[in-house]
Design a protein that fits this description.
Radius of gyration: 13 Å
Strand order of the largest sheet: 1-2-3
Distance between the termini: 28 Å
């Protein structure tokens, strides 16, 4: 987002959510630590009913986010789970 010239991720995301209120919009968590990911996910979900939180299946330290995903899902947070596999 910075490379694209977006100075405020939250402000930009909220504008997009408001521009397309009838479409699901995925907004990615930027934190890499598990606690930060969950906190950001809950915050992002509060930005609009069409906000889907994009969260990776693991962080850069290869820690699984499955426990976070389960808690978020059980509390009704709309999710978009991403997974990248390398050999």
């Amino acid at each position: 987002m910075r490379k694209a010239g977006v100075p405020d991720y939250e402000e930009f995301s909220r504008k997009v959510l408001n521009l397309f209120p009838n479409l699901p919009i995925s907004i990615e968590v930027l934190a890499d630590d598990l606690e930060g990911m969950e906190s950001q996910a809950r915050k992002i979900a509060s930005w609009g009913t069409n906000a889907f939180v994009k969260i990776p299946i693991a962080n850069t330290q290869r820690e699984s986010t499955c426990p976070i995903i389960r808690r978020l899902s059980e509390s009704g947070v709309p999710l978009n789970i991403t997974s990248v596999m390398t050999s």
